[in-house]
Amino acid sequence: MIPDIETQSITDIENFQNALLQKQIAYLLENSPFYQRRFKAENIQIDTIKTVEDLQKISVTTKADLQMYNQDFFCVDKTEIRDYATTSGTLGDPVTFGLTDNDLERLAYNEMLSFQGAGVQKGDLVQLMTTMDRRFMAGLAYFLGLRKLGAGIVRVGAGVPPLQWDSILRYQPKFLIAVPSFLLKMIEYAEENNIDYKSSSVKGVICIGEALRTTDLQPTLLAQRIQEKWNINLFSTYASTEMSAAFTECNQFAGGHHHPELIISEIVNENNEPVANGELGELVVTTLGVEAMPLLRFKTGDMVRKHTEKCKCGRSTYRLGPVEGRKQQMIKYKGTTLYPPAMHDAVAHFKEIKLHLIEISSNEIGTDEILIRIFSEDTTDEFIGKLKDYFRARLRVTPQIIFEDELTLQKIIYDPLSRKPITFIDKR
Ligand SMILES: [Zn+2]
């Protein structure tokens, strides 16, 4: 089931990717108004870029580029577009992505590999607990991938624990696709309603949106809390509309595998130069085989590490660790730098906290202030003290913490226009 290329030597994979990259450069030169202009400005010829290392010779593509010149990234006529998806831009307007028929096929192939890696087989049933519409690409990609794999799908969508449990008990899915913190809600609902979740049909969950692994690939507190209660496998998957590709964990749970036929990745420092394997840097991607809106050296803003030691599953491809943060969400706090995911995970340590929202703002002396708004079962001063001590010990920061009522937080966190819960607000 594993494509041949994924078990070849590193050199073979590099050569394979270099050949695909050359094709990609030729395609952009021929079809992309944005890259035609850029190649001309930077004196890039068809033979300037022959290898992944040569990508250093061309400047990166930013989210601002995508937003300002959105139309110029399209390489095909509008009549060839079969599906539109959008991502939120940094400057206000969304960025539009189009997919051709072949792009949808590529997306399906990508998700098929991703699900196979997590152990989903032909004939298995998977319950989709994320949104399929609202111009998001992910839900559609899961559907197409599972269909291509020959698996069945129950499209329940986001939220609504009673309907989720009704579907699980009725159709007996083996896998779920879900936001991991929602699994805690599912467990809570099951406990309150005497549903025997521990012996349900569910064996594994493909998890999106929140980190399941720490920097050194150990289970996060969130993953531990779920698995303490419910003995199921939790697989991380990481993808974005811009990448049109996913990095999903195999049965070794040690970061998401790279698929060489779909994407080239670089992990870079502030100056867009590669960092050493295992070091934290920003992920920069070059899509392979995309027709409508291919991207070259796109800066994702996601801070990740590349793990290159051979995986025990037999694939020789590298893996990406968890997204440790978004570059623009880096918080500078009294000489420490940190990212929201580490704080979310620290909050996950406390079962009393039912909802939380982290807000970052700048104070008058130009340093960042951290405010955590929580809805908690325990609202005593002692509990606040315990929280602060834990944060200080674990992350070397002492946030301000205030109690809120459930409804106030719910309204902000579960915004119907957002695919993922909003648990971080940046006011800087
Ligand atoms: Zn593996």
Automatic annotation (TrEMBL):
Q: Report the SUPFAM superfamilies cross-referenced here.
A: Acetyl-CoA synthetase-like (SSF56801)
Which InterPro entries is this protein grouped with? AMP-dep_synth/lig_dom (IPR000873), ANL_N_sf (IPR042099)
Which molecular function term from Gene Ontology is one that the record holds? ligase activity
Entry's Gene3D superfamilies? N-terminal domain of ligase-like (3.40.50.12780)
Q: Superkingdom of the source? A: Bacteria
Q: Which Pfam families match?
A: AMP-binding
Q: Which UniProt keywords apply?
A: Ligase
Q: What is this protein called?
A: Phenylacetate--CoA ligase family protein
Q: Coiled coil where?
A: none
Q: Which PANTHER family match?
A: BLR5969 PROTEIN
Q: Where is the AMP-dependent synthetase/ligase domain?
A: 87-287
